[in-house]
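Predict the 3D structure for this chain.
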Amino acid sequence: MPELPEVESVLRCLRDEKTSLIGRAILTATALSDTVVSDISGAEFAANVAGYRFSEVSRHGKYLIFTLVSSTGNNEKRYLAVHLRMTGRLYLVNQDEAIQRHTRLVLLLDAGVALRFDDPRKFGRVWLVTAPDQVTGTLGPDALTMSIQVFAERFSRHRRQLKPLLLDQSFVAGIGNIYADEILFRAGIHPLTHSNSLSEQDINRLHGKVIEVLIEAVAVGGANIDGVFKEGGFVVQVYGRADLPCLVCGSIIEKIRVGQRGTHYCPECQPSEVHT
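Done. Predicted structure below.
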């Protein structure tokens, strides 16, 4: 599943000066799946985005936010919010390139290019809204830009196991199963540790590892775990490595279920007795 680093990589590609989406106008929109657009029909979506121009692309957690402005000059704004979910992929191509088997949405733009949304498992969603908060309003602060002060203050409100807490998008937005395991491993904290048992030093270290892991992953295009982000170069140390030796100490990586999610950790590097 694309998490913050993979979504950030998509964002940077769409902002790249050679392939930038900024300034391009939407000529037509075609929904090739009944479920890709939320809350309105594909026809209604198409009618309400045609003639609008992309003025900004941003991200909050795992959501991409596209700001659209009217080409008529009245400065009316609308927003596209996109969540890639399990297998979504958003990219620019030449308009003449053949539609792929799993293409769910096509926005034909000016200058002969198209923005396409492919999604083999059909879980990804696109929303057309008048304000981003209509989709992202329940999210916590973005994990990549959250300060230690905000992180610590939010920690003080909870008494929960760390793995489910890090996955809770209302607590902090952008961390998924892969990076939660990697962050806790680098912090040397067991995934079943309760948040209220951490010292100030522990919280500072955990916040530092959140930023460290995400920055490293963003720099290499995320992780290629399931083949969706083939260019991703982030090397996992515990996620998906159950029954293999720890790359740090040689102990065998264990896998347990925490909050219905498969969770990987090193029993030597992340001892449970330290923070239970």
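The chain has two domains: 4-136, 148-274.
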